[in-house]
Amino acid sequence: MLFIRYVLTICSLSGCGGFGIRNFLTLFLSIEVTKAMLEASSAKDRGDESSYLYAKRRVEIFTEQLNESNPLLTEISNCMTREGLARDRVETLGEEKDDEYEIYLADMKTAAEAKERANGELFQCNMKYQRLMRELRERNEM
């Protein structure tokens, strides 16, 4: 989970967060769900109720994180597309700094701001689920 925080921080700072982070985060969480499902199945087969409930809750937490982060990742991706299209148009217009140029410049800024907001929300989402997993581990260790 610390690695996810690092990747999200780097992506927020560098302005990425579309295709790469979306695939990375979804893949990571999917792997964690699968591992937890296998652990739950194994614990159930052994009759280890405590381990079964722990693994089952991990599945739930990772699935909730996937569901909560997906719309944020989509928003980031959409904003990046909008920002890129506006930037391309601004560059195409170049010296012709007319009303159309100003409209695309404003759209580029609006998209960049929306992307930063969504990146912040994604980071907060990640922190929430890190906290839930830490609390689950601490309860399990007791």
Q: How many DSSP-defined strands?
A: 0
Query: What value does the Rg take, in angstroms?
Result: 20 Å
Low-pLDDT residue spans: none
Structural class category: mainly alpha
Measured by DSSP, the beta-strand proportion falls in under 5%
Mean pLDDT: 86
Report the span from N to C terminus: 21 Å
What's the helical proportion of residues? over 70%
Q: Helical element count?
A: 4
- Overall spatial form: rod-shaped
What does the main sheet amount to? none
Order of SSEs: HHHH
Total number of distinct structural domains:
1
List keywords for this structure.
0% strand; mainly alpha; rod-shaped; 4 helices; 142 residues
Structure description:
The protein is mostly helical. The chain has one domain (2-131). The protein has helices at 2-14, 19-46, 49-93, 99-141.
Task: Describe this structure in a few short sentences.
The protein is an all-alpha fold and 142 residues long.
